Amino acid sequence: MENSFALVGKGYLIVAADTTAARSIVKMKSDQDKIKALSPHLLMTYSGEPGDTLQFAEFVERNIRLYQIRNLYPLRPSAAASWIRRSLAESLRSRHPYSVNLLLGGYDIASDDPHLYWIDYLGTLSEVPFAAHGYGAYFALSLLDRYHDPNATLEEGLATLKRCIDEVSKRLVVSPDKYKVKVVDKDGIRDVEL
Amino acid sequence: MARRYDSRTTIFSPEGRLYQIEYAMEAISHAGTVLGVLATDGVVLAAEKKVTGKLLDLSSAKDGGYGGSGEKLYLLNSNVIGGVAGLTADANSLVNFARSAAQRHLLTYNEDIPVELLAQRLCDMKQGYTQFGGLRPFGVSLLYAGYDPHYQFQLYHSDPSGNYSGWKATCIGANNGTAQSLLKQEYKDDIGVKEAIGLVLRTMSKTMDSTTLGSEKLEFAVLTVDPETNKPKAKIYRPAEIDALLLSEGLTKKEDDAEMKS
Q: Which SUPFAM superfamilies match (chain B) (predicted)?
């Protein structure tokens, strides 16, 4: 099953998502990147109904890019989160709603700090210090409650993330085996190997 | 023959000019002066009121609203104050549009509209009126004094053609040439909001036609950031506050004070 985690630390944000693409009970591939870079300092993981997820993620990606081209500055993470939430809320009230859950995180260059937002298909939005989607959330949140430190260094943050992933691998019946991890800070986005 | 190319906005003259736009700008250079100065920790705006007189009822300006008299300085959004020069009726419709645009941005993005974006929104509309047939351009220039987290304090000017530009200190309306050369002489890059207030009032007193400065002729506003909440704080002065400010800056004449008291 799909899992995604994210947490903020001192001046950075870590985002992780599993890499399985499944249909019914069959694993189609295990190296799919489900984290989109929306702008030089903005990351989004997407999970939910296959097809919906990619369609909506690309819709968001293109619109955020358009804003950046049209206007003078890229959207700040909080503004992007509000816009995405509204898109989902409007979609929910249409005839064919998207069934997509998101974790949106980024580094705000204007105020010099990282932000993380938890968004679900019902149009719920909340800013959080750490977040998770999928069955893995039931294991990861309690661990993050215990071990998350907003002032931790990147190494400590990655160690906390590893705890979550290991626990999910150990206890969840249908646990994914591989994860993609990305970090965003003042210098931009980069991939990280756990 | 001179009338051939200025009856419609959309027609170029053979020299490649749009006369209606130039006439609109001419109208503005007779309007009340509006002056803005950008400081390191704030932006200051001042405006000269044209509609005055003993019989004018200013009671609404004294009690309600955000301050000012509702002629020249308006709160466009919680982070932007606008100063208008030109046709008041046109200005009212632009102010209304600006407020809607700012609220629309707040609704979709849950943040105050960046200052330059608001100026762009208004300029898009102003430009439209220079191109579509049968329409008259807006006879209004605006100064935008604002704050946003991208570029902190900012001062912009937009004119009837839809051009806009950012300034450290500028002036629109009557005598804007004199005021601008005065500002050019006296402006320093590290000016604080306290000195900027003084600079604005001094320049205003030199460029205004009337000899005495007072709340019946002047509107005044300052945009700063509240040190406690870290949010922009827009203050448009009420008439009594303007008089108090002028007194503390030593710009009211002594004999006027005696007259007012008696």
A: N-terminal nucleophile aminohydrolases (Ntn hydrolases)
User: CB-based contact (8 Å) between B257 and chain A?
Assistant: no
Tell which residue, B131, B107, B115, B114, has the closest CA to residue B12: B131
**Partner-chain contact B108 A72, CB within 8 Å:** no
In this structure, what token pair is assigned to residue B72?
Answer: 């020249």
Q: Please give the domain boundaries of chain A with CATH numbers for all domains.
A: 3-192 (3.60.20.10)
Q: What is d(CA B108, CA B106) in angstroms, rounded to the nearest whole number?
A: 6
| Angstroms from A79 CA to nearest CA on chain B | 4
Chain A residues closer than 8 Å to B110 by CB: 78-79, 81-82
- The C-alpha of A111 sits at a distance from chain B's nearest C-alpha, in angstroms, of 7
| Model confidence pLDDT, tens digit, residues B180-194 | 999 999 999 999 999
Please check whether residue B144 is in contact with residue B136, taking contact to mean a CB–CB distance below 8 angstroms. no
Q: Is the pLDDT of residue B74 over 80?
A: yes
CA contacts within 13 A on the Cβ side of B183: 27
Q: What percent of chain B is predicted at pLDDT more than 90?
A: 62
ipTM above 0.85, yes or no: yes
